[in-house]
Amino acid sequence: MATIPRTIHLVAPSGYCHNPAAAARGVARLQAAGHRVENSGIIARREQRFAGSDSQRLADINGLTQLNPLPDIILAVRGGYGATRLLPHLHYDALRACLADAPAALCGHSDFTAIQLALLTQSGIVSFSGPMLAGNFGAEVLSDFTIEHFWRALTSPKLTLEWTTVSQQVQVSGTVWGGNLAMIASLIGTPWMPEIQDGILVIEDVNEHPFRIERMLLQLHQSGILSRQNAIITGSFSGTTSTDYDNGYDFTSVWNLIRDLTGIPVITGLPFGHSADTVTLPLGSRGVLTVADSAASLQLSGYPVLR
Question: Is-catalytic flag, 140?
Answer without folding.
Answer: no
